[in-house]
Amino acid sequence: MTDRDPLPKGQRPPLSPTATGLRLVGIGVVVLVAATAFAYVGGYLDPQRLTPDKLVNTLEHNNGTFPGYRRNHPKGVCVAGYFESNGAAADLSSAQLFTSTRTPVEGRFALPTGNPYSPDSAAPIRSLALRFTQADGQQWRTGMNAMPVFPVGTPEAFFGLLQANAPDPKTGKPDPTKAPAFFASHPEAAPFLAWIKTAKPSASYATVSYNSVNAFYLVSADGKRQAVRWNMVPVDAAQSAAPPPDAKDYLEQDLNDRLDAGPVRFNLILTLADASDPVNDASKQWPSDRRTLNAGTLVLESEQPQLSGACRDINFDPLMLPSGISGSDDPLLAARSAAYATSYKRRTAEVEQLPKTAPVTEKKS
Predict the structure, then answer these.
(1) DSSP per residue over 155-203, as a string?
(2) Which residues constitute the signal peptide according to the record (predicted)?
(3) Which among 68, 140, 224, 282 is most buried, taking Cβ atoms within 10 Å?
(4) How far apart are CA 117 and CA 122, in angstroms?
(5) Beta carbons within 10 angstroms of residue 198's beta carbon
(6) In which element (H, E) is residue 129 found?
(7) Nearest-5° angle of CA 72, CA 73, CA 74?
(8) Burial class of residue 160 (count of CB atoms within 10 Å of its CB; 0-12, 13-18, 19+)
(9) Residue 73 annotated among the catalytic residues of the structure
(10) What is the pLDDT of residues 136-176, one digit of tens each?
């Protein structure tokens, strides 16, 4: 018993009909507020707002629809292994994975195009998504790209970029005047454009660095918050031999060959922001002299085809975070989370339509 509960539960008088009604109304109001907030974030109350469906529909319009596949980054390979912390980040974050233990990891390397049949040379960017499962059951999911910065800083600007690259109904190809016009009106894209001019497709998933691009917060056991971005940096950056000029599907084979020789390793490098660094705009880089910290090593031991591997049915939602890591107020994070959920719902309803074997890009005779 307590001061506020003078009678044991079994001896309390029943609530009057009026009190019962008021309590139910209170619960209903809480549920309604939560549902309304969720609907607003999802963009379902205002038809003028950018919604997850609108974003994913545009990806499908631009790329075509391939049932059962992700609506973006559909060509890839599953990987599995573990993360071995060195304890260096334990003071910055209470997340269990940063203690000196091994945390199981499942993930996926992928090609960031919208077509699972794209040749591996179709884009100069590679991506890496990971799911860390802690011993306490909490998970950290992260999706990273092998590029230093995102082209734009808001979901609306990203949607505008997709629209600028939409195929013209008359030609089936993007209007060549729209992308230049878009970038002229979005000067924040200059760092990305400068990088993309010299970027070349790597011959291996294992030899490039993968960046979070968005900022997050590490939260210590005593509640201190440190804004960070992270990179997965290859331990062995030895380049693979250049594929033959007519090669279309070489990244998965290169990974398989490397894993036959031993695990593929990446160091998790945390970049710590200063108070003046923007944490809500992925189009802005932080100064190169910011403090960095090696938090441990990702060890990948095996790969599986994405059509049957464990990664196929994982939604690598970047806001699926354990205690000790939290999202920043970067608007792209919420948009990514919502769009990933929409894509996941669509593709998992289409699993039976997936091909029985991995797609192979047709080679020119």
Answers:
(1) HHHHHHHHHHTSBPTTTSSB-TTHHHHHHHT-GGGHHHHHHHTT----S
(2) none
(3) 282
(4) 10
(5) 7
(6) strand 127-133
(7) 90
(8) middle
(9) yes
(10) 999 999 999 999 999 999 999 999 999 999 999 889 999 99
